Here is the input.
Amino acid sequence: MRARVLIRPKAGILDPQGVAVERALPALGFDGVENVRIGRLVELDVADAAQLRPMCEKLLANPLVEDFEIVVE
Amino acid sequence: MKFGVLRFPGSCDEVDALEAARRVGDAELIWHRDRDLRGVDAVVVPGGFSFGDYLRAGAIASFSPAMESVIEFARDGGLVLGICNGFQVLCEAQLLPGALLPNTNLRFIFRQVHLELVRRDTAFTCAAPPDTPLSIPAKHAWGRYHAGPGELSTMEANGQIVLRYAPGENFNGSAGDVAGVRNEQGNVFGLMPHPEHAVEELMGGSTDGLLIFESMRMAVEGARA
Amino acid sequence: MPDSATLPTLQDALALGLTEHEYELVCGHQGGPPNQVELAMYSLLWSEHCAYKHSRKLLRTLPTEGEHVVMGPGENAGAVDVGGGLVCAFKVESHNHPSAVEPFQGAATGVGGILRDIFAVGARPIAVLDSLRFGEPSGERSRYLLDGAVAGIGHYGNSIGVPTVGGEVYFEGPYEQNCLVNAMALGLAERGRLVRSAAAGPGNVVVLFGASTGRDGIGGASVLASAELDAGGEDKRPTVQVGDPFEEKKLLECSLELLDRGVVVSLQDLGAAGLTSSASEMASKGEVGIDIDVGLVPLRESDMEPYEIMVSESQERMLCVVEPGNVAEVLGVCERWEVSGTAIGTVTEGDRMRILRDGEVVGDMPVRALVNECPLYDLSPERPSAPLYPPPAPAPAAAGEPGAVLLALLASPNIASRRPLFEQYDAIVQSRTVRRPEEADAAVLALPDGAALAVSIDCNGRRVAADPYRGTLAAVLECAANLACTGALPLGTTNNLNFGNPEKPHIAWQLTEAVRALGEGCRALRAPIVGGNVSLYNEGRAGPIYPTPVIGMVGRLPDARAAGRLGFAEAGHRIALAGPFAPSLAASELAKLRGEPLPDGLPGFDLDALVAVIGAVATAVREGALASAHDLAEGGLAVALAECCIAGGHGARVVVDPGGVLETALFGECSGCFVVSGEAAALDELGDSVPLTNLGSVGGEELAIDPAGGDEIVLALADLQAAHGGGLARFFP
Here is the structure.
């Protein structure tokens, strides 16, 4: 089955990319933007959806600084 | 002959580029918020990590006020040189075709590389002596040149490939060993290696980079004459 | 921590790392039990990391003054005069425990921290070097740590535009569970432009600028940096700080512009213990008080407690003191660099450090007690009666014919080419780098007046473990020898003392002996200590690390164009061995490869004689008399010869007098010896002032070593290159 894993910086962890983008957007005329957080998306086909969580904990995400969210289609 | 060297927050090699340009002409820094290019004859978009390279290398810088003026300057035929991060900025700004992706080994690599000069009849290479490979350092993590299907052959047909890595030197995995490309009009040139770091015998032994700046001076002064 | 309404107890103080006695002293200074904010601040400033409570008395014995010293220990970085109206500020610092928990961010923020120390004194950072220690690279975890640390150092240094020009790495079992990540930085400033950190002028405004404050590294200084690492490492993860080199690049330019404009009275970076340490130290040095309103500090998370704000180790922040009339200009400069700047406090008369939130006092402490009255402890050194370290595991390749042994040494992790590592660092940005890694024994950086700086960082911990006194002296001499090979004489020294738990008598003995040698070596070389750092409690489950007093030395040569190289330059040049050759296999690289236990002590040497040799070689190089110079280190004479061949791309033909045992002559190690090459007349002239043995000549495509009376060793240059180049590269596919 097709699964998507969304990985983003944990709440409270500094996200330098998010900060840089948040500062750049108003310069392009996009006002009212706050709390930009930049993560990544991993798409994969898996036979056993139960493996997704340990996969994330071990490899796909760094539990030290990142949260993840699993979406199975 | 006056060069303008852009400076973004996060630029690192802008002073090196400034000093290299000063070996062949005048040069000054232009702050990224400044729309006024102050009458320069050529623009250098320098190396470094503009805006931390966050989101994508060169992406945020390509929208800077100074870059809006550079885009206009280029449309009017002005010479624009993009080095490393500057090359990435020019691709993001669509002044040059293609894109730069992470090196295939996913590491930042600093290495002195040998380059083949594909064309000597450009505004950026006309000072080069014939048949000499160039030795210029490269240092980047996002230097793998990529062009869409068919685009690379179109570019080749148009003579837009100016520099290639010599055999065995393409450490970043660039398509077609491409190290430097120009636009169709021939007035915008981007390359991953750093010519501004090959201008002084004392610092590593090669002065091959100087010919890029010297070529630009010759092109500007030739056009003026 | 308990609810802020109730006062913390002795138990809380113990959990924060204070002893019962120290807690009682705190109560005495406070006139009763401290509240939460006060206890948090005392516990950090009275930690080993901030107070140096087990090392300060020893450090006082080190030489800190000399003709070139402009600023000695006590400031963010020390500085030496380099001529031409310029000074060089430099310092080494450790980030060992954070790197063991998360190697990429730990190493990255280590670089960020040492760079801030440099620009906090008003110098523009011009170079970074690193000193790394891991377990054997055959181990998966060691490779993970190495990979992460190297990538982190590169990420930060490359992104901020400061070249990483040199460094060293050793792989040894005792670092398996406690890696070392030390970073050194150098900066240049005009002589009159150095700024100190002492706050001054009651009524002046305290401005915090840079990144916002989050919960990064809360308790990091006392919990992470002052306790032995154990299996609980994983649980400490949330306190790791994330580095942002882009923010620091802006902070650097912003700080230097503020100093250029002369609008700040003093400047300080926020490092370990964050605002607590930087604000209280500014007040202490200036003999003033300070009020900080934590309600004004820009936060990343709005619900932070006052004590969290005071101890946060969020990176990329600076603190400055500004006269009220200049605040608007300071904030304007911050704005131009897109750096957030906020007035958060005031310098006051007297001796109180007061923490306020929205006008209400939430902490109030005497500055002097907080900063200077942490009790200092005497060590109880005791020479161990039994070996502290198990013998290393033998490497089977290190047996057989001398030629095979030489190839095995060249491919061994401690000798093999570091190219796969240093290729990840930008070594040339800023256009000062005259010698890149593997071109010379020290990095060489051009100065504007045509002179050059040379810089080296070194320490062979195994030799220090075998003999803390002579091993440390050898590390100091090694640095000076590296400088000499480029033609430089030392100006000053920095050091990072990485040791185990000093409360254990045998560790105390290692530390005491090492500091004694450090002082003697630096005195003999006229290379005073201008700053440094101490990292204690470096122990894992299997025991302490090798004692590792990392030495960083900065020198100067008058003409950058004369900077020496290590590689043989030209066929036909004569090759000689300079220095009192007294090789020994004790604690050598070969002994390690063979799994031999560490000896109890190293052979002695005549310090003054070695210092004279080092000086003579430096002079010969700077005068342009030598075509190459390389000092003998790990692997001895044979490895040094091979390295000269590899670096220069030339073969060599030499005759070695075996003296006693051939293997000892080829692979034995000693201090103060050099392989030099050049015209015969120039070598003869060097021989007038130092012991010199002619070995042979440069040329051909192979290294041929003829041991007078024994079988010749002949190895093709390509085979030497393959062994040396592949030793570490195989771990970096």
User: Anything to note?
Assistant: Residues 130 and 183 of chain C are 4 Å apart (CA to CA). Chain C has a mean pLDDT of 93. The longest strand of chain C covers residues 124-134.
